[in-house]
Amino acid sequence: MVHGSLAGRAPPAAAQRADNAGMAAGEQNPDERQQPERVLPLPAAPDAIELRHLRAFVAVADELNFGRAAARLYLSQPALSRQIRALERLVGSDLLRRSTHRVELTLAGDALLDRARRLLSDLDDAILSTRSVGGELANRVARAWLPVRDLAGTGTEIQQFRAAVEDFHAGLAPPEGVGVRAVNAGGVPALAVAEGPDRPLNLLYLHGGAYVSGSAFGYRALAGALAVATGVGVLVPDYRLAPEHPFPAAVEDALHTYMWMLDADTAPDRITVAGDSAGAGLVVSLLMTLKEQRLPQPGRVLLLCPWVDLACDAWLPLEQEPQLIMDPRQAHRFAAAYLAGHDPDDPRVSPLTADLSGLPPMLLQAGTGDPLADDAHRLTERAQSYGVDARLELYPASTHVFHYFWSFLPEAADALEHAGAFTRRVPA
Fold first, then answer.
1. What is the pTM of this model?
2. Alpha-helical runs (H) found in 238-360
3. What is the pLDDT of residues 236-249, one digit of tens each?
4. Residues 306, 265: one domain?
5. Which residues participate in catalysis according to the annotation?
6. Where are the alpha helices (H) located in 340-400, listed in sequence order?
7. Which domain holds residue 50?
């Protein structure tokens, strides 16, 4: 390096003192006869490059347009240009070729791009991990759940619970660029959530809410995140809720919606059926109904933190589980409202005792600290015992349906990214 070679020409201070001491009295020091050479402390590039320089370069390289990159970084174009030129001076190479209508990477820019991306990504991960360890993210999740949790175990009326659930979802925003439109899906009111109107509706999403709450409108944020992760449109039906409409009303609505997708000339192997919590249980009920009626199964199934044990045997009391959002007694009450006296051993409502053979590939996701994680474990083992291609992914999250918090929780963003990759799998 230039810096090192220049520094090597300066005599060590200790050696210089020894040479001076050994000179005879009256002998002139050679350094006094000529001006000593000045060594300039040139900064090494890694010490001088700032993160803003790298972020500016990556943005321009991604967009290949200074105007779009400047808008993405909330900078003016002149400020962005200054940052790029500063980076080029520091590395000693031109990174971009600019012309009136085009921006291109040079070979040097191409060599830097992937490394710069990795560096910035690693830094962002480190900051998120630090915040997570510091408890900031966990506290944010707990605060978000507070309106629902405050009603847990108090004998709350279902209408109050529904309102609290809608208030919770109102605090979650869909990703930018995602559109929402109303759809009549086989007689079932639904919302289509997608990045563009041309995206096929290939993902049927059955929302959670303990069978008594939740709505397509409330689930716009999570459905939007799934639309971005999967690259397809997401159909979220407003299936009928208990106790006004007990089992099998929700299953019938899910079936009508699924058949509407098939009637729209969507091949079954292109369809993913997904759901969270009770919605995941409803997904399995739909699959068992399709099996019973010998109708085509979807290509794959995505289950987020499934609640499938309506007996709630594994639930801890609310006071023993700070992240639990519903008391077991309340869950029992909601399950009873859904079943309305129906046989709880019916395979359509009890997948943990059902014959699951012939069901499509499944990806199950749960948090390691999710109070209902045992349901995901048991359902995975049950499906595998019947030869189903079922895989369980566990994430270091301590709340139920941690996917809601994809906008700030790294585990949730990772889970949705994996879910997106799973939906693009070609069935065997």
1. 0.69
2. 249-263, 278-292, 328-339
3. 999 999 999 999 99
4. yes
5. 277, 370, 400
6. 373-385
7. 45-133
